[in-house]
Amino acid sequence: MALDHHVEQLLAGLQAQGLKSFENMSVDEARAVVSTFTGLQAPSEPVARIEDLHYVSDTTELPLRIHLPEGTGPRPVVLYFHGGGFVAGDLEVVDEPARALANETGTVVVTAAYRRAPEHRFPAAADDAWAALNWVAAHIAEHGGDPGNIVVMGDSAGGNLAAVTALRSRDQGGPALRGQVLIYPVIDPNAQLPSRIDYADGYLITAAALDWFWEQYLSAPEDADNPYAVPTRADRVDGLPPALILTTENEVTRDEAEQYGARLRAEGVDVRTVRFDGLVHGVYWMSGAVPRSRELRAAVADFVKSVVAPTSAA
């Protein structure tokens, strides 16, 4: 399918500005570029309350933000990990989509920051995501959430963290998650599938850029065999919570995400995989620039509402 018209316009504008591919940037440049995605977003919706707090992982205090919708609880909870190639991204770039999700689903949406590469390589981010889940399970009741009613979610590298957190929760007796939402997740650094070849030169993320992000994140080549870095390396994926996997047609990570979904389904996990033709990596953050980002957001909201238990009080 042809590129979405708004995506085409956006890419042409970025090219005219001389935007370099990520593998040709410094870490600071990559972080600065990712932070500009807030400029591609619609105005943020008001929510009933925002709480900025911290959790502790490996003696490090890290920020998290709680987005509370109108109404009383206890409310189901979505724990959302931002993307950015393990290198970039923060709570600000996902504040607008988190607010929208809280309002649409009536859930408490928690966004959790994590230590970023290359200053903090694997397993730092994975350990932080696990610590954030355990913080939510222990403390979200104090903030209007239901600790027995949690969905993990992430986009891009955050999708990887959501997937490995679901694995870890199964393996280590963590919370019984209601679901996992993986939005164009970065799954496997060694995947050599058609989309990695067909879209090697981009859009937005090239194959070389994807390799660069993985090089910043992994501490050593053998980390690629660790299922808490690369979920496809898990010996088994049965017993995981229902999954929604969203991919876009024109991107390098498409096939590895869809292949992971096929494996989950083959081992008995309830999986919904949806590909959005004409779109590219990153559109979940582009509510102002790409109107079809609403399609991804609607799919997420519908899935969340379908897997969480009803709110116990109106």
From TrEMBL:
Signal peptide: none
InterPro entries per record: AB_hydrolase_3, AB_hydrolase_fold, GDXG_lipolytic_enzyme
Pfam families associated with the record: Abhydrolase_3
Record-linked SUPFAM superfamilies: alpha/beta-Hydrolases
Gene3D superfamilies found in the cross-reference section: alpha/beta hydrolase
Residue ranges occupied by any Alpha/beta hydrolase fold-3 domain in the UniProt entry: 78-284
GO MF annotation terms: hydrolase activity
Superkingdom classification of source: Bacteria
Keywords in alphabetical order: Hydrolase
Coiled coil: none
Record's keyword annotation contains Plastid: no
Assigned protein family: Belongs to the 'GDXG' lipolytic enzyme family.
Entry protein name: Alpha/beta hydrolase
